[in-house]
Structure formats: structure tokens, C-alpha cells
Amino acid sequence: MGRVLQLSPEEMRKLPRQLKAYSPWLANFQASKYSEVLELPGQYTGMSKPLPEYHVKISSFDENVLLMSSMRVPMRIIIRGDDEKEYKFLVKWGEDLRTDQRMEQMFTLMNSIYARSPLCTKASSVPSLDTYQVIPLSLRVGILQWVDSTQPLKDFINDSYRENETKCYGEARALYGKNENYTVAKKAKKRDVIKAYEEVVNKIPWDVLRRGLVRMSSSTEGFFSLRSAFAVSYAALCISQWLLGIGDRHCSNSLVSLKTGRVIGIDFGHHFESAVQFLPVPELMPFRLSPQIVNVFQPIGQVGMLKEIMVSALGALQESRHVLTAVLEAFVKEPTKDWLDFVQKQEGDTQDSKVELFSSKRIELLNDKLSDINPAYITLWAVSQNKFVAKQKAYENLKQAVLGDRGESVRASVGERGLSTHQQVDILLEQATDPNILGRSWIGWDPFL
């Protein structure tokens, strides 16, 4: 596998599909030949005392592998357990998967908070996140639990176009791409951004994503059940990811369960505001709530179905702020490669003092979100640190977009501090759906979907 890391993407796509080409030992492994046993990965969660005597042991490996089409060509393998079941895992290389592991651990902790909090248990639906195991093997190789019966949100939408609509996405993307000079987009006037953005949005039928859930349903009641599952999981995911500053939420970084309709987040390389602070086109939205997602909930809209869940989720996490910050403080004592790369970009080196300063600011940001801050000011701070924005002298224009206009937006009509949980959620929803923000986004984010 080490040799694979040295290959170009083109060479990777020509790789063989047999396990023996990568590890003859694994391909030939039979548990019956050895006195020692190998446990199935991912059975030590850290949430309870392990009971190894009940853990699944590895019997053998499937001889075939599946190579994925993404940039680093990750590989899916199948492990056969001694319980006569097959377990799928994704092998990824070229990344420090400790970041994803820690995010999943934070999600697991948040789930336990949601399950115990009266704010959530008294609500109509208890927020919850679907998680999966991430097992780093080194700083550049690791494996992830394969999530069966799911589809990336982008593919889920693409499969829902009618036959006469198949060109809609390409036309919308081409039209949006006319404004792909992001220096201009950062400095464009609000009315021009909104006009151009709405023109692109109107190229796509309003209900494509909604149709996908309808397609999964056998009845009207089934659709309402799937939509509710989508709402509960997505609202919890949005709040949880915002607290951790997770960005790069394009349509391929969320999976939709084809059985339950629930949404699962993946790929957390951008976290703690890095997508705002370091990307050439800063991601000004707190989470993805683009038109197709909003329209799933029509005629109720996002306020009716999402806000209640978001308020209860954020309130529960705020009540447990000391637990969350304590876990984060433990994580930063062993910075990941991603973390050190961000420090290098910001400070120019990775001296211990610079890493400590960077880490303490991230803990401060989490504490701010768990208290009474106006979320727009978190975004504004990150924009102020973006060197691309500074170089293009675009800060003042983006500041207006981030804070909104007094009298028109909630975030501009309240102060920086002293907000209730309800007000914070109102501002998050407002930011996430503001066409003046969405219309300034990177084209690969597909803000018009």
C-alpha cells in the first residue's frame, strides 16, 4: 500500500481489483491456520468497558476489492467474520484519518448528550446522528466502516431528474460559472449577486430532491415518515457540524440512507472554520441549507421542521459545554496533520507556541458557540483571517454579506453577544439560506442545488 501513495491519479485508476495484488498475506489469510486471532476492527469505542471475549474475530478476506472513483482511489475490502457475516471497510491513504476519527467520537458524545437531555427528550423528535467507525493505522493510512445502502446527496438528486430535465444541472452550472471570477463575486453588489443567483436556481426544478424521497415511499404516510427522518438527522447534523466548524459541505460530503432517508456526514478535512479562513473562496454558510433541501419541507419550510430540532440540539449541547470543551482540549494535545497544516498556513511555521495559540483559539470559538454569541461574528472573524480576502481587498464587502443589513436580517438587528438559543438558530438558518451569501460561493459547492 505504501507504493500506491506514490502513484498519480491516472495510474491509480489502472490498479488491479484483486486483494492479492496489494497484500498476498491478507488474501491468503485463513484463521484456522493460526493459533492467534485477529479481531474485526472498530469494536473498541471508548464509551464502555470492552468485552473482547464477545468481539467478532476475522475468518478470512474476500479476494476482490472495489476501487472508488474519488481522487485518491480508496479501496473497499470485505472481511468475513467468525459469526458468518461479511463486513465492508473502506481503505483510505494519503490522509490523516485521526481528524475523521475525532469528529466521529465527538458525534458519539453528542448523541449521548441528546439522548439524556430533557430539552431533547421532551421535543417531538429526539435529535440523533448516524456515526461510523474510523480506525487510523498510520498518519497516512486508515480504514473506515462502510455505510451500506447509502448514496451521496449529489447522486441522489441526479437520479431524481425526469427524462426531459437531464440537462438542467449542466445549464445551471454553466450559467453560474459565468460569474466564476471570484474576485469580482467577492466585491459584487448585493442586488447583482441575488439577481444572478436566483436566475441560476430557477434553472433547476424546485422539487428534485423531494422527488427522491417520494420515489422511496410506498404511500403518502411513508413519504412523511422518510421526510421526518431526513429532517431529524439533518437538523442534528447541521448543528453538530456547525459547532465543530466543519465546512466543505458540497453535495458529495453527505450520504442519504436509501432505507431510512436519514443523512450521514462524511469527510471532515475542513473543520474549526478552516473552510472560511483558508479557502480562496471562503465558505460563508454555517451549513448546507440550499434550495433543494429547503424545498423538501414545503409547504412548511425550514422553520417548521428544522428549527425545533436545532433549538433543542443546540440547547442540550450548551448545557454540556464543559464536557465538550474538555474532550476538545484532550484532542488538541496531539494535533493531527490537518491541524498542523492549518497552523503552517496561518503562522508560517509549526512551532509549539504557534500550535498552542492556534489550538486555544479553536477552543475559544467552541466556547463562544456554546454560550451566547451571534453566529455571524464567528464567520466574520474567520473571514478577517483569510489571506485571499485581504489580498483582494474584499473584506468590507464580505463583511456586509456576513452581517446582513440592519432592519432586513436578524443577525444585523441584534448585538454580538447576549443571544438566546432561539436567536442563534434563527441567525444560522438565515445565513444558510441567504442568496447574497450562497451567490458568492465556489461553483463546486453547487449552491443552487
TrEMBL record:
The keyword ATP-binding applies. GO terms for molecular function: ATP binding; DNA-dependent protein kinase activity. CDD domains: PIKKc_DNA-PK. It is an enzyme of class 2 (transferase). One of its GO terms (biological process) is telomere maintenance. Residues 417-449 form the FATC domain. Keywords: ATP-binding, Kinase, Nucleotide-binding, Transferase. This is non-specific serine/threonine protein kinase. It comes from Penaeus vannamei.
